[in-house]
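NADP-dependent 3-hydroxy acid dehydrogenase YdfG, Yimella lutea. Tokens?
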Amino acid sequence: MDIDGKVAIVTGAGAGIGAALGRALVGGGARVVLADLSPTVQDVAEELGDSAVAVTGDVADPGVIDELIGVADDRFGDVHLYFANAGVIGASGLEVTEQQWDHSFEVNTRAHIRAAQRLVPRWVEAGSGYFVSTASAAGLLTQIGSATYTVTKHAAVAYAEWLSITFGDQGVGVSCLCPMGVETAILYAGRDSGDRLGMAATNAVLSAGGVLTPDTVAQEVLEAVAAQQFLILPHAQVLEMMRQKTSDHERWLRGMRRYQASLLAD
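Tokens:
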């Protein structure tokens, strides 16, 4: 999809990949509604001028999603693209509370489902639309430390695949972003928590591949949208890791256990 002249919604846009996507979209001629829990999203919108407007709120809340779409419709016109980018890392270990599980599912998975339920029927009727899901390499591989992040990001990948299969021949494009280390606050959340598994998780990502800037990732996302490419892997080595996992799952699991042990021993 050519983004020039299009209207997009970007969640998690107060910083990091979301803010970078907002800048890249406006730079390509799009108009954007930016959303985040943090009031910093207002600063990002002000930076982008008349082509952007910000909404502060929980993008897993159905009412907030409706508000985002309504603001886009009123300010810019029909929504052509939705970037479900907001995410949370979640706690480490086995003793995660029900509330923590619910929060991770709400933000990392259900927020995507709710947005698609509202927009995909409109896009099918119009014959055009695009949904971009920010998942993670953890959604293809795993995440040392956080079960909630691993499980909900796997679910996000699965839902994006289902959307593409179900509606891809009806004009709805779908891409799924699965990076490893990106220079954002979420990258260091585990280390800053002081929890051994959380610190190991951060160290695992830092040691597995280079840390990219959000602007670099945003540019790759828009290139994938232009090419109608489903899987976006800014870290090329993730593809080889996926091949190793699927070619010999038992060996991969043993290797991951050894890797985790080495990180915890540091």
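The chain has one domain: 7-237.
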